C-alpha cells in the first residue's frame, strides 16, 4: 500500500471540503436550483486548473531534461557507441 504524500492528502482534504459544501448548498430548498449549476461550474474550473498545473509541471520536467543533454529516448541509440 502506497503512502499518501502531503500534496495528495491536501488534495483529498480539499476535494472533501468542496463536496461537503456542495451537498450542503444543494440541500437549501429553493436555492438548490442555482447551486447545482454553480457547483458544476466550480468543479469544472477546478479540474481545468488542476490539468493546467499538471501540464505546466510536465513541461517543466521536459525542459529540464532537454537542458541536461540528449533526450532520454535517444540515449538508448547512442549507448552502444560508448
Molecular structure report:
This protein has 82 residues and is mostly helical. It has a domain of 38 residues. 78% of the residues lie in helices and 0% in strands. It has three helices and no strands. Helix 1 runs antiparallel to helix 2. It starts with 5 loop residues before the first helix and ends with a helix.
Secondary structure: elements and pairs:
Blueprint: H1 6-26, H2 32-67, H3 72-78
Helix pairs in contact: 1-2
Give the structure's gist in a few sentences.
This protein has 82 residues and is mainly alpha-helical. It has a domain at 30-67. It is built from three helices and no strands.
Please bin the fraction of helical residues. over 70%
> Structural class, from helix and strand content?
mainly alpha
Quantity of strands, as a count: 0
Computed CA radius of gyration, to the nearest angstrom: 21 Å
What keywords describe this structure?
single chain, 82 residues
Amino acid at each position: 500500500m502506497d503512502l499518501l504524500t502531503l500534496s495528495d492528502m491536501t488534495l483529498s482534504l480539499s476535494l472533501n471540503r468542496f463536496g461537503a459544501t456542495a451537498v450542503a448548498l444543494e440541500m437549501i430548498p429553493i436555492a438548490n436550483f442555482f447551486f447545482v449549476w454553480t457547483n458544476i461550474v466550480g468543479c469544472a474550473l477546478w479540474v481545468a486548473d488542476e490539468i493546467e498545473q499538471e501540464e505546466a509541471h510536465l513541461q517543466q520536467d521536459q525542459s529540464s531534461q532537454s537542458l541536461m543533454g540528449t533526450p532520454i529516448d535517444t540515449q538508448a541509440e547512442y549507448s552502444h557507441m560508448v
